[in-house]
Design brief:
By secondary structure, the chain is mainly alpha-helical. The protein has a domain at about 10-100: Arc Repressor Mutant, subunit A, CATH 1.10.10.10. The protein has six helices and three strands. It has helices at about 15-35, 40-55, 60-65, 70-80, 105-125, 130-159; strands at about 55, 85-90, 95-100. It has a three-stranded antiparallel sheet with strand order 1-3-2. β2 and β3 form a beta hairpin. α2 packs across α4 and α3 (about 60-65) crosses α4 (about 70-80).
Length: about 160
């Protein structure tokens, strides 16, 4: 059995090391999915923001991305050229245009990510129920910590 020192003794907890590896692989996976879709990383990230938000205006997307309206308009044009987004006129205000992810984009991303998500679900399902709950609670806690950390470093950059 390995001897795991506590983080207070100067070494990192083995789970922290695993999380660091997971974060790195998540970044590599994101880059590879973007490449496979023929997109740069910025355009792919915009696509994922749109997929999560649903139809939004270019201005709202720019705010979500922390980008200028001009940069976001160019980005939307590139995504539209690939067939990954579509612009739709608002039915309430014809001057307003919303951007939405196409079924083609949703299908391609799903095809790329579903094998991993399915395998992870099978792995989790193989655990006893009480351990599934522990894993879920831990991952929810890490997700919240990551959101808080992102907010903190984003705020620090504004100073």
């Amino acid at each position: 059995m390995q001897n795991h020192e506590s983080a207070t003794e100067g070494s990192e907890h083995p789970v922290s090391l695993t999380l660091q590896g997971l974060f790195g692989l998540a970044n590599e996976t994101e880059r590879e999915v973007a490449r496979t879709l023929g997109l740069n990383l910025t355009d792919y990230r915009a696509l994922t923001v749109l997929a999560d938000s649903g139809p939004v205006t270019v201005g709202a997307l720019a705010a979500d991305l922390g980008a200028t309206a001009a940069t976001t308009t160019a980005l939307v044009s590139r995504l539209e050229m690939h067939g990954y987004v579509e612009r739709m006129r608002s039915t309430e205000d014809r001057r307003q245009v919303h951007v939405n992810v196409t079924e083609v984009a949703s299908s391609k991303v799903k095809d790329l990510m579903l094998p991993l998500l399915s395998a992870a679900s099978r792995q989790l399902d193989a655990l006893p129920q009480d351990r599934q709950e522990v894993v879920t609670d831990f991952l929810d806690a890490v997700l919240n910590l990551m959101q808080d950390h992102l907010q903190a470093i984003s705020t620090e950059g504004v100073r």
